Amino acid sequence: MEIVTENPVSLAWIGDAIYSLKARNHILNKGIQKPAAFERASAKICSARGQAAILNELNQRNFFLEDEEEMLRRGRNANVNTTAKNADRKTYMQATALECLVGYLSRYHHEERLNQLLDLCMEIGDTL
Questions:
Q1: Element (H, E) at 109
Q2: pLDDT band at 1 (very low <50, low <70, confident <90, very high)
Q3: Stretch 11-28: mean pLDDT, rounded?
Q4: For 22, phi and psi rounded to 5 degrees?
Q5: Which residue has the higher pLDDT, 3 or 127?
Q6: How many CB atoms lie under 10 A from the CB of residue 14?
Q7: What is the pLDDT of residue 82?
Q8: Which residue intervals of the chain are DSSP H helices?
Q9: How many CB atoms are located within 10 Å of the residue 3 CB?
Q10: pTM
Q11: Fewer CB in a 10 Å sphere around the end CB: N or C, the chain?
């Protein structure tokens, strides 16, 4: 694992942007274009609850490598001063953990693993 000097919240901000863009492109590619339907589909995948559910499913599948587990831990333990509008703190921190991992994979140029993770997140998100 690389020596990661960035704050996990900074990585989560990067990860949130990448994850949201991937999710919205995925939704458009499915042919969902009407604004209300697009927003509902996006909320299922991008909300803190949706991300926490996806993270739990990935954990059950033993998807994560050892260094990724460390980034998830750092994301869950990050000092975040805000909370989600519609989720409890634990759920919000699980979503932050997933976003932190996405930010880490992007920032440290693990493109193949990032694409594998995001594709699986979208696949799981479609089943929510």
A1: none
A2: low
A3: 97
A4: -60, -45
A5: 127
A6: 18
A7: 73
A8: 8-29, 35-46, 48-60, 66-76, 89-107, 111-127
A9: 4
A10: 0.93
A11: N
CA dist 10 → 17, 79, 90, 102 (Å): 11, 11, 19, 11
The answer to whether the beta carbons of residues 95 and 84 sit under 8 Å apart is yes
Residues 6+ apart with CB under 8 A from 105: 68, 111, 113, 114, 117
- Tokens representing 23 are 């999710």
Q: Report residue 1 as tokens.
A: 């694992």
Two structure tokens written together for 99 = 């976003």
Give the gyration radius of the chain's Cα atoms: 14
* 33-40 mean pLDDT: 94
Number of residues in the chain? 128
Positions marked active-site? 16
N- to C-terminal Cα separation, the chain: 32
- Going by C-alpha positions, the residue among 46, 40, 50 that lies closest to residue 20 is 46
Tell me 4's DSSP state.
-
| Mean local confidence (pLDDT), 102-120 | 97
